[in-house]
Specification:
The complex is a heterodimer of chains A (116) and B (112). With 116 residues, chain A is mainly beta. In chain A, 35% of the residues are buried. Chain B has 112 residues and is mostly beta strands. In chain B, 0% of the residues lie in helices and 55% in strands. The chains are: A mainly beta (116), B mainly beta (112). The interface between A and B is medium-sized, with 24 and 23 residues.
Chain lengths: 116, 112
């Protein structure tokens, strides 16, 4: 099925551990992004990419790293997990521009991360 | 001041009621206005979008934008239990989507 696939769905980490959240889309979308969602804070942009080889920081990038080697994949790396990174993480994609019928983001189903 | 303000609710209504969900925003440069629906433990999904001011209708859903007041609304007619979800408004100033600002979401419960 076409869409955005995130793995894993759940993860528990110990403080200081590192891990990579995977995100893949099969819609040939140029733009991909990572958000975290926390109660009362809404969705906050961590990093985004406008195409393979191009990434940039969003609103809350500290403690996270990204790369975009292919159009399909956009992994998010937690360098040294902290309890403040406990959150639900969403990957989203969209084609660039504003073509009719292709507006808006397609979100993955999320990764629930707990850092203890 | 947050760029987008949204009442978190929860909002509880009986089945068949008309629901009004609202957001205010501060930046007059915003031109694209979106509503996402998010079911529990799922990712948000685009429900509707509008460009600039005016109304847009899609079935039981109507999106309304008042740029003079910086106020956007989503109306749900004949609400159903399946409409129970969190609704997020989202705004951006261009079609490029690089910077989309989301509201915090309003949780809606439709009681049978």
């Amino acid at each position: 099925n076409a869409g955005v696939t995130q793995t894993p769905k759940f993860q528990v980490l110990k403080t200081g551990q590192s891990m990579t959240l995977q995100c893949a889309q099969d819609m040939n979308h140029e733009y991909m992004s990572w958000y975290r969602q926390d109660p009362g804070m809404g969705l906050r942009l961590i990093h985004y990419s406008v195409g393979a080889g191009i990434t940039d920081q969003g609103e809350v990038p500290n403690g996270y790293n990204v790369s975009r080697s292919t159009t399909e994949d956009f992994p998010l790396r937690l360098l040294s997990a902290a309890p403040s990174q406990t959150s639900v993480y969403f990957c989203a994609s969209t084609p660039s521009g504003g073509q009719t019928g292709t507006f808006g983001y397609t979100f993955g189903s999320g990764t629930r991360l707990t850092v203890v | 001041q947050k760029e987008v303000e949204q009442d978190p609710g929860p909002l509880s209504v009986p089945e068949g009621a008309i629901v009004s969900l609202n957001c205010t925003y501060s930046n007059s440069a915003f031109q694209y206005f979106m509503w996402y629906r998010q079911y529990s433990r799922k990712g948000p999904e685009l429900l509707m979008y509008t460009y600039s001011s005016g109304n847009k209708e899609d079935g039981r859903f109507t999106a309304q934008v008042d740029k003079s007041s910086k106020y956007i609304s989503l109306f749900i007619r004949d609400s159903q239990p399946s409409d129970s979800a969190t609704y997020l408004c989202a705004i951006t100033n261009s079609g490029g989507y690089q910077k989309v600002t989301f509201g915090t979401g309003t949780k809606l419960q439709v009681i049978p």
